[in-house]
Amino acid sequence: MHMGQIKNAIERHEIISFDIYDTLLVRPYVQPSDLFRHLELKEASPGFCRSRVDAERASRKLNFETTYDDIYHSIKEEFKRLKDVELDYELSLTRANSEMLEAFQFALAKGKRVVLLSDMYLPSGFLKELLLKNGYLGYEMLFVSCEHKCNKHSGGLFKVALDYLGADPKSILHIGDNRRSDFKVPTSMGMDAICYDSMMTQYFNANPREGRCYRRSKSLDMSILIAMDSLHWKGSLSKEGGNGYWYEASYRFGGPIIYSYLRFLEHNLDEGDNQIYFIARDGYNLMHICRLLSKSPRKCVYLYAPRVFRYLKGPEMGINREYTSWIVRSFQFNDEVRKLTDGLKLSSKVCNDLYHRNSELFERIRIGEMEKYERYIKNSIATEGSVFIVDVTTLKFSSQRLVKAFLDSNQEVMGCYHTVLSKRFDGRYVNFHDRGGKLINWSKVNVSEFFMSSPEPPICGLNDDFTPIFKTGYSDHESFRISLQDDILKGETDYVQDMMDAFGDKLPDISSEPMRQWMDVLIKRRSHLDKKNLLNMRWAPDFDHNEYHYLIFNWKDIRYHVTVKLFGMARNMISRIW
Length: 578
Description:
Layout: H1 3-11, E1 15-19, E2 25-26, H2 34-42, H3 48-62, H4 68-74, H5 83-93, E3 95-96, H6 98-109, E4 113-118, H7 124-133, E5 141-144, H8 145-148, H9 156-165, E6 172-176, H10 180-188, E7 192-195, H11 199-206, H12 208-216, H13 220-233, H14 245-268, E8 275-279, H15 284-293, E9 299-303, H16 321-330, H17 335-341, H18 348-357, H19 359-380, E10 387-394, H20 398-405, E11 413-420, E12 428-434, H21 442-452, E13 459-462, E14 468-470, H22 476-483, H23 485-503, H24 512-523, H25 528-534, E15 538-539, E16 549-550, H26 558-577
Parallel strand pairs: 1-4, 1-6, 4-5, 6-7, 8-9, 8-10, 10-11, 11-12
Antiparallel strand pairs: 2-3, 13-14, 15-16
């Protein structure tokens, strides 16, 4: 039923009765018991959720309209200490259903008598505090089943309310989400009723692909991801929000990617890690949102360490075409190089020929750039203590190797990665998602990088003042990606801010497997709107950022990915032989 119909029904009645939970109030979980699971994890109390559910069941066997005190009287001794903690979680995390708050305020504005009825074990004093916190004030009376020892399901609580009101049942409209307790029972007693679909029921009806995702994994993490998405869908979170597809996609998918990874990062930082170095370009959004999410005084530094800069130290496997191509293409900012390459199409063969004919020039430039980059690294990174770098995806740990190569040998470099594609590295690192040794789904890798990347084109060098020299003449695909970055960053920032507002000091962690499943909603179960917009998005995953392909895998790209795989296998074989 639409809000207009609900308001019309309210206008036709003198007295309006509302259910509370899942009608006026909602929690940031799919199931009510998920609050117990969350509390168990945050308070390091294994077994609490099961014990709490069992205690309520045992208490109801003695007295169906049990009280909160009775439940904690039945719970295991080790969990009795959590009695006040649970109330704190309930008070902190329960929030108003914006749709029903509107209906509630409309009823009061029309001069209706408003009463509230709830089949609940929590005492009325606590519920009044909870309602007041969420903007519900001005109602006449609150009827709670545990205090009147009767419930809506049996009709007893409605009889108590009718006796209090002294009104004709036909003058009363009851609104609630339970088909029996909130609709069949009151209508059988002569009242009018509206069976209001709960927020989660509405969400799953309107979003079947998200519903399928939840049914595959009813974990706490997935419950929180789905519930936060439903709250956003109903407009119960961000006050301002944004417009357009890319804001929405970034809020719903980019936001959870960044939030989950930054929570992982926070847990892996040591007390001595006072500075965090976010590797450009993928670390841009991470760094901005880390400043919002983290409560620590750690300094966040944006560090340019692209994998192509490894050649500043010279070729790793001899002067091959990969090396000469990078040298020639990357040094286009130099006037002498620009004159040499003017009007040429810089294929790998052309670059190789140019390099060998002008090797002294290119090596002189390389050495100068190497010395400049060494000064940049030492100027940017603290000289004492370990260095903690944050990057998104790695196969060869190139950014970590690069930073280490330009620091003193006794200074340790620790890496933190969202996705690791190989474990062949003897340095120290932690990773949120491990795809080492697995068949790589490039869409999962590309999408994560896309949502974290900066509004900058690829970098090809540094000026003398250490500001970046960006690649020029980049493609329309790169220009289009850059044009979206304001919407992307805003969507992701709003999501993280909403998580902070919803959970406060009880922020949950989201692990990598539920995040992978949630991303499959976008990658594998795309809506018509997703397909329409993602079809226009290309991503350049190659070494030089020249080869643009579909952000989400398309069969048209299979030739490229097979070539990359075969090239990588050939390089590994050559390195083992020679």
